[in-house]
Amino acid sequence: MSTADRRIPVSLISGFLGAGKSTLLNHWLQQPQLARAAVLINEYGPVGVDHHLVRPLDHQPVLLASGCICCTLQGPLVDTLQSLFLQALRRQIPPFDRLIIETTGLADPAGVMFTLRRSPFLAERYRYAGLLTVVDGQYGLAQLDTEPEALKQAALADALLISKPDLCGADQLQALTQRLAQINPGASCQTVRHGQAEVALLAQLSPDPASSPLRLRRWLRVSPAVGLQQDAGQGHGVTSFSLTLPPHWGLAELLAALERVQQRHGEALLRLKGLVRFAGDTRPTVLQAVHGTLYPLAQLEQCPAELADNRLVFLTRHLTQAQLAECFFDHK
Q: Global pTM?
């Protein structure tokens, strides 16, 4: 029998400036289910404001305003999470069973994901529990076209919330919903008014696609369109497509291919998802990578029959399917 993971779950709330992150967080922290949650609010700039808008039940949120935590991986974020854990251990602050991080509206949330894994101290005590991105219903479409950070926040999310649906028309809301489904077809998406989303959504954020066949099916969805934008000048050239690996591939070959992608195309690979049966394995393996950094591998006991092995699903920016395929199959 497997041992339960006792590490503290860390949930991220992301979204572009003014999307409604603090409104959502403020509503959630008034709910008794999160009475033992700790909160970390990251603000960009010398003067913090958002933390005054959030009122947890038992203690004040921790403000980290020394720049974007997603850009200072080994600095303030690591120090703050270590300090929070040790203070709770010494009973200097109330013990907490969940940590919620609200990132600055200019953040690429991938940085926080990496930090939780790269720091040995944090990796033993905290576990990444998913990303929720709030998208502004009134301005979201324009932001996805003009703001690279907004696009990344939507692409990396495990769940999407469209805020302010009352401030946009039905056609605009439908267009935004369809656009988000193209950018991130594996994420759930719903609307929220005045931050009144159910706290249960946090528990549904699990980034582990192997937790259920239904989650795995949804997670491996690919956009019905090969390219998300007909005009490469909009949407920052984001495309979604899949590749199929031959059955003889091993893990070492996959890692070498990802290294070639990083060397040739830098940050162009936003996200990779895949289901691969490596050479010599009897069970398929679930793959996840953000910016080319591979998550811990997870083997499935069984796989839904309709999901084909060795299928990799990519979300990229300014990178064509042919360029990516070259890194995998034609790299000599």
A: 0.76
